[in-house]
Design the sequence.
């Protein structure tokens, strides 16, 4: 079984103009012939949100690399929060608040993924496309995030299998997600697979980075991060 995995994170025009850091972060790493991915989006109004986003991705990578097969993902979510609190050090959780999406794909194609807060978590398993992210119900820019208190009921989780070529998982922050038409998410997912499956990882990352830098939505301003893992062979 073979996979293609690519990811990119680019700073948005607003933060570039202000001389501020990218408040998105990402992690993508191989693990036992499978893959681990995470993306995070620090809340824009918080002073240390770039730190919180980076630490969230690092914690997700550390936990998932050490996790056994058959991980009970919902039961492990409090550990993500606990280790994130430790990882941000002296920063206050409120100042470092961040969303977090992550996924693990094993060498056998088993998928586990979770999301807290904004962004999109999309999967195709056994040929069927599905949006894991619930429809947004909060007002305006309100979102759930890693902060002082663990919010078990605000997490969305999924567990499935990448059984066919073209199956995969895509994680993105709201700088990308908010510009996509909900009715066209399956087409967007397929287009990503078609483009990335023809490139190796390095060329795929460059292509994705170029697409995010040249984002077609007029007057877009936010940071943008996207990570995709696709199965490309039986």
Sequence:
């Amino acid at each position: 079984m073979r996979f293609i995995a690519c990811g990119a994170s680019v700073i948005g025009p607003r933060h570039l103009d202000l001389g501020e850091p990218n408040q998105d972060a990402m992690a993508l790493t191989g693990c036992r012939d499978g893959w681990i991915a995470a993306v995070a989006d620090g809340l824009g109004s918080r002073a240390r949100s770039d730190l919180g986003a980076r630490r969230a991705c690092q914690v997700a990578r550390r936990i998932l690399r050490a996790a056994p097969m058959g991980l009970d993902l919902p039961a492990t979510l409090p550990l993500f929060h606990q280790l994130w609190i430790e990882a941000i050090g002296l920063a206050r959780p409120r100042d470092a608040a961040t969303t977090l999406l992550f996924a693990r794909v094993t060498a056998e194609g088993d998928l586990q993924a979770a999301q807290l807060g904004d962004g999109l978590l999309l999967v195709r398993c056994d040929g069927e496309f599905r949006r894991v992210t619930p429809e947004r119900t909060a007002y305006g820019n309100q979102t759930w995030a890693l902060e002082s208190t663990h919010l078990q009921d605000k997490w969305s989780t999924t567990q499935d299998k990448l059984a066919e070529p073209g199956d995969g998982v895509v994680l993105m922050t709201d700088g990308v997600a908010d510009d996509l038409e909900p009715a066209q998410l399956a087409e967007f997912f397929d287009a990503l697979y078609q483009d990335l499956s023809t490139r190796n990882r390095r060329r795929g990352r460059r292509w994705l980075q170029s697409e995010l830098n040249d984002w077609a939505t007029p007057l877009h301003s936010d940071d943008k991060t996207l990570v995709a893992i696709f199965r490309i062979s039986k």
User: Anything to note?
Assistant: The longest strand covers residues 3-10. Residues 110 and 161 are 4 Å apart (CA to CA).
